[in-house]
Amino acid sequence: MENFICSFCKKYNIKEEDAKFLFNIMKVKKFHKKDMIIKEGEVCNQVFVVKEGLTRGVRFENQESTICIIVPGQAFYSAEGFSRKEKATISVQAITDCSIFYMDCDEYNELSEKYPVLYNINLNVLEECIVELTNLQVIFMDFPNTADRYLELMKLYPELDKQIPLKYVASFLGIATQSLSRIRKELKAKKIIPSTAQ
Predict the structure, then answer these.
(1) What is the DSSP letter of 54?
(2) How many other β-carbons are positioned within 10 Å of the β-carbon of residue 80?
(3) What whole-number distance in Å separates Cα of residue 156 and Cα of residue 107?
(4) pLDDT number for residue 22
């Protein structure tokens, strides 16, 4: 079984055969590094699942700010476009070259009536999105110290420290890249994180 299917099934508590059914009816599109998959200010009426590569949710209002990192096996969509066909308030951009499954929301909803498994997948994805948002809120409320916040974030999302540019992680934490670089240097010196970490 492909890695992204394993990740998808584990993250959203979905059976392997159900995931394969979903991916058999979705289409695949390739995006290049820095391509916009969802554009803030435009209506996006599609659901996506990352097959390969890394993407990020980002806002460009006032200053560029990374909202979330989206990894293989993770689903995403514009909440405004999905439910109300309104303009997206957050962009999604490819961090690396990506291969992404997609389907129009209308088609997904129509097929969900015919195949209950798709409806259940949708519920699981929505539930996990709420859990993830809650976890992030807890990190930012319970850990005022940036170093502690960074360590908690790495526990929740270890993939953030692998292929993702430091500037995006720093933006996610709401600090300057130089500040995060200094924090990581101190954590390495104290042997709290490996000296080999990016």
Answers:
(1) -
(2) 16
(3) 33
(4) 93
Torsion, Cα 101 18 126 3, to 10 degrees, reads -60
Q: What is the pLDDT of residues 49-65, one digit of tens each?
A: 999 999 999 988 778 88
- What single-letter DSSP state applies at residue 62? S
Distance of CA 77 to the CA centre of its chain: 10
In contact, 100 and 50? CB cutoff 8 Å: yes
Q: Which residues of the chain have pLDDT under 70?
A: 1, 159-162, 195-198
Distance separating alpha carbons of residues 19 and 5, to the nearest angstrom? 7
Determine phi and psi for 173, rounding to 5 degrees.
Answer: -85, -10
- Residue 26 carries which DSSP code? S
- Backbone φ, ψ for residue 63 (5° rounding): -140, 155
What local confidence, expressed as pLDDT, does residue 197 receive? Answer: 62
Rounded to two decimals, the pTM is: 0.84
For residue 63, give every residue at least 6 positions away whose Cβ sits within 8 Å of its Cβ, in sequence order, or none.
Answer: none
C-alpha to C-alpha distance for 24 and 172, rounded to whole angstroms:
34
| Residue 34: both structure tokens together | 């820095």
